[in-house]
Give the backbone structure.
Amino acid sequence: MARTALVTGGSRGIGAAISIALHDAGYSVAATYAGNDEAAAAFTKDTGIKTYKWNVADYDECAAGIAKVEAEIGPVDVLVNNAGITRDAPFHKMTPQQWHEVIDTNLTGVFNMTHPIWPGMRERKFGRIIIISSINGQKGQFAQVNYAASKAGDLGIVKSLAQEGARAGITANAICPGYIATDMVMAVPEKVRESIIAQIPAGRLGEPEEIARCVVFLASDDSGFINGSTISANGAQFFV
Ligand code: CAA
């Protein structure tokens, strides 16, 4: 029977590419989204991939949503924590609200999604947790104290979960994309974006599919001994 994969923020941007790649690789895929009903409906129409709406920042919504997915599709074997937001501002202008919105979604959201799924993975002795972190969690970024903190925190989650899940057949790994051609990066002012691209030795933004292919590998049986790792996919912009 096909394995079930759940992708948060899976109807747009990098998440959509991940959902499609996993679907093409034979998984039964569920994609969550937070707000854009139109994009989610179009995504389901185009791909046949079911979408579910809930806020990853809310623990109870996650628990209820996951229960629904598991009843309709099957126990989650692969969880891709991809949902993420930015609220960029130089630190002296950053508001507590901007801090909390980003931490609640990008960091606490990973706890909220993984915690209800974890016991089932332990029982079934198989699981794949994949977190989409960011180059900016590795190097920091001007105007992203909140985002960089959340993405660096995601790497701490992966390294700890890897140790806890290893004997239960569960792996936890992170991918740190560099700047990828998505709405999030396109929202950066054009001049700033041009200066960012100038810092990428590859001379271009990455494509969402380049991240999706890493996810498919990490989800597979072939990656079983890769646990607690961080894969950087950034066109040589930054090395850890
Ligand atoms: N490094 C150093 N200085 C910088 C800078 C940088 N990267 N970016 C801006 N500055 C400077 C500006 O030159 C300006 O300086 P002056 O006042 O001396 O001219 C100052 O900082 C900006 O001050 P403002 O008061 O004008 O800033 P603002 O309140 O208008 O904020 C901004 C503008 C939010 C910082 C905007 O420039 C921006 O969005 N920058 C991009 C931040 C970024 O890279 N975000 C990544 C988004 S993509 C992503 O997050 C995906 C991923 O995982 C990779």
Summary: Residues 76 and 230 are 22 Å apart (CA to CA). Residues 86, 88-90, 93, 134-136, 141-144, 147, 179, 184-185, 188-189, 192 surround acetoacetyl-coenzyme A (CB under 6 Å). The first strand starts at residue 4 and ends at 7.
